[in-house]
Amino acid sequence: MTNRLTKPLAGWRVLVPRGGPWGDQVAANLRAKGAHPIVAPMINFAATDDAPALDAALTRLAAGDFDWMTITSATTVDVLSSHRAVVAPGTRIAAVGETTAAALVAAGYHVDIVPSEDNSARGLLEEWEAATAGAIPLRVLTLRSEIAKPLLSEGLRRVGHDVESVVAYRTIGVPVSDQVVTDVKAGLVHAVLVTSGSVARQVREQFGDIPERTLVACIGPQTAKDSRALGLRVDVIAEERSAESLIDAIVEAALAGATPAR
């Protein structure tokens, strides 16, 4: 008989909406809890419309031309990996959120700052001065998606930093297999991880209303807010905006009495 304390998610089928190193790590962590992960990437990146600008920025990054680089999503890490980007030893990296930080580490990069309270561009701006000892101006490379608001770049420029903002990718939805759609709609997937607003949009568009018996778990308050705005039900929210905390939230629900759909 499986021990509920060591394998609290035994029998649970959990949808992991991202692939790559992050998805692999989350899948491994879920298996350690007894779950059966279904890795079904729902978003991917398409090449930026200004590839020369990105290539030039990454060449300068390898050469040590920047004091800092800011990364605002795990997808940006995928772009760095696909370009085999090299970060010069003297360049520090700021990650907006634990998911992004975990993706950086999984891909072999280092992380120097993650906002301790508000895991967002605004949160990073609030903690930037203390984290950088008030040094101005710093040379900062900000990599972002085509749809991201330039809040971070504008905020850093406003306080006097030399910022180069470069579009690293375009976010596109990825259709999951017909079998995954069928299983989710039939309530045969016991939990769905929602790791960003972009993922929430794809979950809503591809699956419609999630069955009540399926747990919808969001990685943080902002993702939960985005999910609800799209009409997606939210059942649990991770306390620490990290993949580990997200899994812990599902474990807590399981131990509290939630059971896999039959």
TrEMBL record:
<dbReference type="InterPro" id="IPR036108">
    <property type="entry name" value="4pyrrol_syn_uPrphyn_synt_sf"/>
</dbReference>
<keyword id="KW-0456">Lyase</keyword>
<dbReference type="GO" id="GO:0006780">
    <property type="term" value="P:uroporphyrinogen III biosynthetic process"/>
</dbReference>
<comment type="function">
    <text>Catalyzes cyclization of the linear tetrapyrrole, hydroxymethylbilane, to the macrocyclic uroporphyrinogen III.</text>
</comment>
<comment type="similarity">
    <text>Belongs to the uroporphyrinogen-III synthase family.</text>
</comment>
<dbReference type="GO" id="GO:0004852">
    <property type="term" value="F:uroporphyrinogen-III synthase activity"/>
</dbReference>
<dbReference type="GO" id="GO:0006782">
    <property type="term" value="P:protoporphyrinogen IX biosynthetic process"/>
</dbReference>
<keyword id="KW-0627">Porphyrin biosynthesis</keyword>
<comment type="pathway">
    <text>Porphyrin-containing compound metabolism; protoporphyrin-IX biosynthesis; coproporphyrinogen-III from 5-aminolevulinate: step 3/4.</text>
</comment>
<dbReference type="InterPro" id="IPR003754">
    <property type="entry name" value="4pyrrol_synth_uPrphyn_synth"/>
</dbReference>
<dbReference type="Pfam" id="PF02602">
    <property type="entry name" value="HEM4"/>
</dbReference>
<dbReference type="InterPro" id="IPR039793">
    <property type="entry name" value="UROS/Hem4"/>
</dbReference>
<feature type="domain" description="Tetrapyrrole biosynthesis uroporphyrinogen III synthase">
    <location>
        <begin position="24"/>
        <end position="247"/>
    </location>
</feature>
<protein>
    <recommendedName>
        <fullName>Uroporphyrinogen-III synthase</fullName>
        <ecNumber>4.2.1.75</ecNumber>
    </recommendedName>
</protein>
